[in-house]
Give the backbone structure.
Amino acid sequence: MYRLVTPLFFLAVGIGFLVATLNLPKARLGDPNAPLYFPAMITILLVLLSVIYFFQEFKHRKEEFKELKMLLSGRMPFLIISTIVMSFIYTFLFERIGFLFSTMVFLGGLLFIINGTKKWLVNILVAVLFSGIAWYSFGILLKVSLP
């Protein structure tokens, strides 16, 4: 039965986005339905793929669901929850301290959670270098405005 949770979740998300898409305001210039085409196409595709996924999983509903056991064993639940918490912290810090420093904190935190403290130098170097290169590439070379 757990197999059906994911396709039903994506089906519900697809239907929700389709309803939201159909409530988008009409364009004042040109084709009045132009803002609807791309989001409607994507959400209809999501709904169709969710239905196909649902029936594929429904055929195997009596088989053992090994992927769920793997997902809930070992360090995996800790890593998933830690990543979600770090993402919320990153979102909170992004506007307050800017892209560069919030990305360093986010990447450094994730790398310390995944790799532990034994590889502290690698964790810090990757966090600082990746954040710096991304900031330089987008902010300086491509002139994309970063907070």
User: Anything to note?
Assistant: Residues 21 and 37 are 9 Å apart (CA to CA).
